[in-house]
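ok so for the tutorial part 2 we go from a plain amino acid sequence to predicted structure tokens. step 1 is just haveing the sequence, like this:
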Amino acid sequence: MIVNTTTGGAFAINVAWIEPNATDNSGETPVPVADYTSGDNMFPIGNTTVQYNVSDSAGNFNDSCSFVIIVEDNESPIIDCPTNVTSNNYIGEGYGLVNVSTDIGSPNATVTWDPPVTSDNSNGTVTVVSSPFESGDMIPIGTYTITFTATDPYGNIDTCDFGLKVEDNEDPVLGCPPNITTTTADGSNQAFNVNWTDPTVIDNSGGNITLTSNYSSGSNVFYDGSTDVIYYAVDSSGNAAMCKFTVTVTGEHNPALLLF
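step 2 — the prediction. this is what the tokens look like for a chain of 260 residues:
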């Protein structure tokens, strides 16, 4: 007989079967006896042999029979997901997500969590794995579902999960060139096509950076005086940085000739 464990237990209780009948040449009806009684018993996980023996009133032991009770554990373990999730840049929880920021200067966040709490009716060792990341991993920018799978010694499983969002909240680092002083073109109050090296940009995400400015190197017109050249850098997460330098235009202009 194949039976399941009783819910919550490492055994099956009160397993019932049809007890064997015995006959004897004396005309008596001997009663078979066994170590287990149908409907009033307890069997552990695994195989247990139930053997019936019979003898008559004259003391003749003539026969026996046996069968096996196979108790299977088909009950899943119980797993409770961790509630203590930590990071160097923990933000908080909302909308079913644990929100963290990337580590300073990194495109990843180092995230740790307590081991899930598990139990199993078999009292055996429950193995837990998490996917796609494990506690202590460096997790890239993005939104993830961390799934924990608990497996008992008999292959029964249970799962739980929590949502994790790694955000990039770190601004790019933008380095403008030094201030520039130049002169006007002859006879003009303007300087044309002033050149400089575009700013250097560093961003922790390693992603694309959008760089914009109010003037372009080599294609511009600056008038007498000082003008701010302003650059903006925006990363793929919307974090922005600004820097500026000054172009100063100086020069002597020819006096105007008035005709009368």
